[in-house]
Amino acid sequence: MWFKNHIAKNDFLFLSYSTGEWRRFFSVLIWGGGEYIKVKPHFSQGLVPLMHDKRDLGARLAAFYRGMAEWVGQKKKYFPLPSHEESRDQLLAYLYMREHMPSDLHEAMEDAGWRLEGQEAHLIDAIEQVLAYLRTRVDGGWELRKMTRKEAKQLLHKRAEAVFGSPSSVRPTRIMVTMDEAWVDEPGLIERLLLYGMDIARINCAYGSPETWEALVAIIRQAEKQLEQQLQGRRCRIYMDLPGPKIRVDRLAVNAGPMKLSVKKNLYGEPMEPLFGLISFSSSPPPSPLPRDVSFLWQLTAEDGATVEEGDKLLFTDVRGKKRKLRVTEQIAPSCFKVLLSRTAYVQKGMKLRRGSASFTLCSVLFIPMKAFVTVGTPLYIYFDDAAFAQAQNGCGVKMTTTLAKAWRNVRAGDRLYLNDGQIAARVVKVHERHVEAKVVADGGKRKAIKQGTGIHLPDSFLHLTVPPLTDRDLEWIPFIARWADIVGLSFVQAPHDLRKLYHLLAEQGAGSLPVIAKIETRAALHNFVRILLEGLKFPAFGVMIARGDLALEIGFEHLAAAQNDVLALCRAAHIPVIWATQVLEQMAKKGIPSRAEISDVFVGKQAQCIMLNKGRHIAEAVRLLSSLLEKEERQSGSLAMPKTDGEQMNLLNLWEDEG
User: Fold this and answer.
1) 3-state percent breakdown (helix, strand, coil) of the chain, nearest 5
2) What CATH number does the domain located at 259-368 have?
């Protein structure tokens, strides 16, 4: 022991108590020169104030407990439950503590070594344990449903298993991965995801079609059969998101300026992958579905009835004076041809193309999906219907229509408008009878793309007053989801009645027991969050997703950290499992290298029972990394052991070891 040479007989040992005063509690009786000392109690000072502080703390905590018990007893009458009453009472008790515990009582308990933070799941029992230690009785006839720490942990584990399925044997936190439509043709990738640790596959029904979703489910089940021995019977659950009232760009038209068609280059500046596109000699829409590899559509007019055929080359000079050519690769419709562009070109309306003596004029250029680039100052014109959009004149900005046109009813001048997950910020300049005029005010320092399907947020415009959380599209997809999904997510939930409506719709499909996830991504959801949790306790299986991307845009980035911590604490109090979502290991999934902040975010997210990853080129490696991080954290839980370095185990508990 480091202090054995600094102590002698008749010395005093001092101890600090809540008042901050150092007091003698023990005097050294014998020092035998060994590894221990013998002491005797020494009550020469401070004992009476100490006992007084203890009794005072017990009395104040008892008064707080009585107030809490009476308040919970009154409030729970308004929230009758057929079961899960213990979770309701813990949640209400936690709310009371947050709102009514005096700060000085809170500080006194901390000074005495008791903290109630982190005890949300068994708060009533935790307070009673402190009162028992302080030998303080609380009389009353309250009927509070309390739980011990162990019981609360077991209940949360049971509910998480009902929603997400059984956890891995090496980590309790599940891994969810958002599926990409293109993975239908990549069974090898699906197999790697399953082997590396994917527990749940998420299908976002805001994109694609039932045929694509069904194909994704089929390829996952096929991969499970191929890996039956390695997976040891573990089954991947299918999670499907209802689209919800998300405003998205529908039709899009750009200004008449030059448009860049970029061909990727290697390190030496040589073209790598050519661009495929379509040319059409008709004003009617191209055939559907379009080939997956096309990225642009040109509408041409031919002089003297000229046409093209497979193998032809169309020569043109782009707006920079660079000579370029299109090669016709195949005919996909009577007046529509697939073409190949091998070098980057800047094009615009009115440009001429030639094939021998035949001449063609470029009438319009569209990206597929439709895309427009904006910078700070770019005007945006959002039209309420297709007729107004068609009649609008092309100006210097970007014009568009959106889904959910009625979402714009409450928009006012000065309201904020975010596009593309907040990468583009704009402000409403003026509201007209048939359209809204806005201007881009922030773009992150470089031009950004607006595409068909880009999400739009209106945090100042009270969307929940004009648009219900279950749209016509949601109602259309519910029968399919009830048949194929293991879990259903309710997007943009706003209030408890949204959950009740979804439950009745699922019950009509014979899927009333299907686990439901309430996605918390709006200001209204936070405002009604406790009542949403209490409604969710009525469900056979229920969970919460913290959709941090949309939520940050709704409430402001500066409030996100506090909001997500509150959601986690309230869910712990109600024993409700949580999905931690949005931008988890995003750089790793997209670029193959994680950022330092992403690694820290994973360990914050470990408080949840499931962590969600979004798609990316390196998603398999991201799943493997996340699984490894969670497994190591589980093994090292409660210790300060660090990874091995140069063959030695780094240990932070080495304070007593001699140097050298």
Assistant:
1) 35, 25, 35
2) 2.40.33
Give the Cβ contact number of residue 133 at 10 Å.
12
Fold for 373-465, please state it: M1 Pyruvate Kinase; Domain 3 (2.40.33)
Beta-bridge partners for 296: 367
HSE at residue 592, side-chain half, CA atoms within 13 A, is 2
Kindly report the number of other CB atoms within 10 A of residue 308's CB atom: 21
The radius of gyration of the chain from alpha carbons, rounded to an integer in Å, stands at 32
The Cβ of residue 333 has, within 10 Å, a number of other Cβ atoms equal to: 14
Phi, psi of 454 (to 5 degrees): -60, 135
Helices H / strands E in the chain, number of each: 18, 31
Q: Whole-prediction pTM value?
A: 0.81
Distance from first CA to last CA of the chain, Å, rounded? 17
Domain 156-245+469-645: give its CATH architecture: Alpha-Beta Barrel (3.20)
Model confidence pLDDT, tens digit, residues 301-340: 988 778 899 999 999 999 999 999 999 999 998 889 999 9
The token pair at 394 is 């092309």
CA distance 605 to 617: 23
* Residues pairing with 374 in the sheet: 448
Write out pLDDT tens, residues 561-615: 999 999 999 999 999 999 999 999 999 999 999 999 999 999 999 999 999 999 9
